Automatic annotation (TrEMBL):
It is found in: Membrane. GO terms for molecular function: calcium ion binding. The keyword Membrane applies. GO terms for cellular component: plasma membrane. Keywords: Calcium, Disulfide bond, EGF-like domain, Glycoprotein, Membrane, Repeat, Signal. Pfam families: EGF (PF00008), hEGF (PF12661). Residues 45-139 form the Cadherin domain. This is Uncharacterized protein. Its main location: membrane. SUPFAM superfamilies: Cadherin-like (SSF49313), EGF/Laminin (SSF57196).
């Protein structure tokens, strides 16, 4: 074994002697720290700023001067520094601030090295911050309260007329309990005590209230979700944080975030109602108001009907958008009733009147045909169709008797 190692050593020396002249101007710098076998280091959190925590080394086979820099750091804040040392380069903690494991448990670094012609990047170095006991225990509530109604004792008695009374017999532990003589309910008496939490180094305390501490209703931390408690007589009142509602801030505010796209949200029980801004409609004000574009012409009034509009037209106007004039508005039928037919009108004349606009007297209305003759209107005049035996325009000429 020993001899074999010695043999190898001799070969290595001679190999360097041959390779060195050939590699001039061609060899790139090489990192020996960090390297694939040396990629991790650690230091305590809270170490003083500008402390040296790791030695980076890189060399160049040609003997060129090598420059090393931090190529990347993740996370990038706070920035570590690299300082040239007698041998290699020292990775220094940030100068501005100390490093906190509770904020950032690990950092990673990649370094670059240059000989002026060639730049190489190192493998990734991981820095693991070692935990120190630098935090105190924190209670999850600012204070606690034990439910005063701990337990109810029950006894039965077969005798119907008997009432049962309950009392605690000695010893009563620290005078902590009372009992309701009638109901058997065991009640924790009113008192407060302190509880300490210690992690061996740091100590924190909180108060625990038992029973109903009059005037201290906030002791039980009734306000949830970071609400602020204030006393209100023997009761408490919570000022809830944004997004919470209710006596104990346990109900989510339906208006946060606002469901109303273009409107104001109002709470309505446990739900919301949107009051839409002008031009918007719908439960969440996300529909354009179809009347917003004033689609009804000529003084017509627009009404929203579902997602569409309906126009109620002013006198004299017709159509979905009130843009066609009512042909009857000028009362074109002198003695008759006007009916619309599209954009035209049609007159239905009163008795005795004729013509498109009922302005002609019906010539037959005066019954001009005598002797049973039938009157027919012809233009503005009449024609009589006479009964047998009569002649003439008005059938008032007797037919001469045939021979
Ligand atoms: C090394 O990395 C840093 C940061 O990315 C960069 O600014 C610098 O130019 C690099 N040096 C060389 C020689 O490439
Ligand atoms: C860089 O390379 C050129 C030739 O390619 C050489 O002349 C020069 O000396 C080299 N510089 C360094 C710093 O290695
Ligand atoms: C004790 O815990 C509370 C939270 O319950 C915390 O606000 C307070 O800062 C802690 N005290 C110390 C000394 O750490
Ligand atoms: C909120 O708390 C009250 C009692 O304080 C309870 O009645 C109610 O159900 C709770 N609501 C929700 C949504 O948790
Ligand atoms: C709300 O109205 C604005 C203009 O007033 C519009 O840009 C936006 O798209 C509307 N939001 C929705 C959800 O319709
Ligand atoms: C809440 O109100 C909105 C808008 O008025 C309605 O669409 C939704 O159905 C309501 N939700 C409940 C649970 O009542
Ligand atoms: C509303 O629109 C529907 C069709 O979309 C229609 O049948 C109804 O008559 C309209 N209502 C009013 C009041 O105009
Ligand atoms: C219509 O008839 C009435 C009588 O019924 C008459 O007084 C009036 O002048 C008539 N109108 C026209 C325009 O002829
Ligand atoms: C209405 O007008 C159309 C043509 O415009 C016509 O064909 C139709 O007969 C008219 N109706 C009445 C009742 O006059
Ligand atoms: C109707 O009157 C016209 C002249 O106004 C006349 O030419 C025509 O013959 C008359 N019709 C009849 C059936 O008498």
């Amino acid at each position: 074994m020993k001899r074999l190692v010695h043999h190898n050593y001799v070969i290595t020396i001679s190999a360097i002697g041959i390779l060195l002249p050939l590699s001039v101007q061609t060899a790139a710098p090489v990192f020996s720290k960090p390297s694939p076998l040396d990629q991790q280091t650690s230091c305590f959190e809270n170490i003083a700023s500008s402390s040296s925590i790791y030695r980076v080394s890189a060399s160049d086979a040609d003997g060129d001067t090598v420059t090393v820099a931090i190529h990347s750091q993740n996370p990038s804040e706070p920035p570590f520094q690299l300082a040239k040392a007698i041998i290699g380069w020292n990775l220094m903690t940030p100068s501005s601030t100390t490093i906190d494991r509770e904020t950032t448990p690990t950092f990673t670094f990649v370094f670059n090295a240059s000989d002026g012609n060639n730049t190489v990047q190192s493998v990734t170095l991981t820095l693991i911050l070692t935990d120190l006991n630098d935090n105190s225990p924190h209670f999850t509530q600012s204070a606690y309260r034990v439910d005063p109604h701990l337990l109810t004792i029950r006894a039965t008695d077969a005798d119907v007329s008997n009432t049962i009374n309950y009392v605690i017999k000695e010893p009563i532990p620290n005078n902590m309990f009372s009992i309701d003589i009638n109901t058997g309910q065991i009640i924790l008496k009113t008192l407060t005590f302190t509880v300490e939490a210690s992690d061996g180094t740091h100590v924190n305390t909180t108060t625990v209230a038992t029973g109903t501490v009059v005037g201290q209703p906030c002791n039980s931390s009734p306000c949830l979700n970071s609400g602020t408690c204030s006393t209100n007589g023997a009761d408490f009142a919570c000022t809830c944080t944004l997004g919470w509602l209710g006596k104990t801030c346990n109900i989510t505010d339906p208006c946060i975030p606002s469901p109303c796209s273009n409107g104001t949200c109002y709470k309505s029980g446990s739900n919301y109602t949107c009051l839409c801004t002008e031009g918007w409609l719908g439960d969440t004000c996300n529909q354009v108001n179809p009347c917003e574009s004033s689609p009804c012409s000529n003084g017509g009034t627009c009404y929203v009907n579902g997602t569409k509009f309906t126009c109620s037209c002013d006198t004299g106007w017709l159509g979905e958008r009130c843009n066609s004039a009512d042909p009857c508005i000028s009362s074109p039928c002198s003695n008759g009733t006007c009916y619309r037919n599209g954009s035209n009108y049609k007159c239905s004349c009163n008795e005795g009147w004729l013509g498109d606009t009922c302005n002609q007297v019906n010539p037959c209305i005066s019954s001009p045909c005598s002797n049973g003759g039938t009157c027919y209107v012809n233009g503005t005049t009449f024609i009589c169709s006479c009964d047998a035996g009569w002649l003439g325009d008005m059938c008032n000429t007797g037919k001469p008797k045939s021979c």
